[in-house]
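To the team - fe (ii) ion complex, inputs and output below.
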Amino acid sequence: MANPDLLKSSSAFAERATQLSRHSTPYRDPVARIHWERLSHDAFWLPQQAVSLYGIEEYEALPLPMRQALSHHEFARFLSAGIWLESVFLQRLARAALKGPRATRIYHIHELREEAGHSLMFLEFFERAGLPDSATDARFDPWLTWLGRRLPFRSTLFWSAILLGEEIPDRLNRYVRLHAQGVCPVAVELSVLHSTDEARHIAYGQEILRHRLERAGGMTKRLLGYALSQLLRRFVATFYYPPQDLYIRAGLPDEPWAARAARHALRRQFVDHCLGPTVSRLRELGLTIGWP
Ligand SMILES: [Fe+2]
Ligand SMILES: [Fe+2]
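Output:
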């Protein structure tokens, strides 16, 4: 006989999926909503405090156009990483469109449409900004790609990895939203539109995790906490610490910029500031997260 508690929580879960689906309608194409004519190369594309070298003496001494160019490259990499993650997630969502209860299938297809809209919005940004493919065609963590493709769709680890993959870049989008002054308005609009959809996706991921952890034993929680700590580090490296060649492509003098960013206290504080709420929420769910 079916466990009545399990049935009750499954129907509550389906109800939550239906509620989130309702908030996804009517769908509005983000590409059509952005005021593209406001795109400017004579502005920062990220708040200055969000640029990886912010506060480093040698960087602050560089001329303004060079510092702005670095923000352009960092923002473009951030969007490219978004396309990479979304492409993995889109593949998984598309395959799951035929499986599972109707309420969750409908919600998954809403997410699929929204993620496709984000990737289109990012590619349109590259197009309008005149960025060549070589500037946006980056390689990202192959281990994360492998996990994203291979973890079973219904597993807690898959949805936890998706949750981190959405929440870690979203914290930066939120920072842009709250510190928009002096930032190119199109970069801000894009971050705000992305963040609005992600709020629902993140709520869904948190709901799955909470639902699964209600029934998880201590050992499962310990293992999951360990796995999420590893994933957290990898996502942070991907989204918050650009590789050395990006600084050179941005036109900065040939100096060890990536190493400087990695050991600079202000950068670490910025990342902690962005990710603090994410880590606290995971800890509140009873997971031991090794951070910082
Ligand atoms: Fe997205
Ligand atoms: Fe998302």
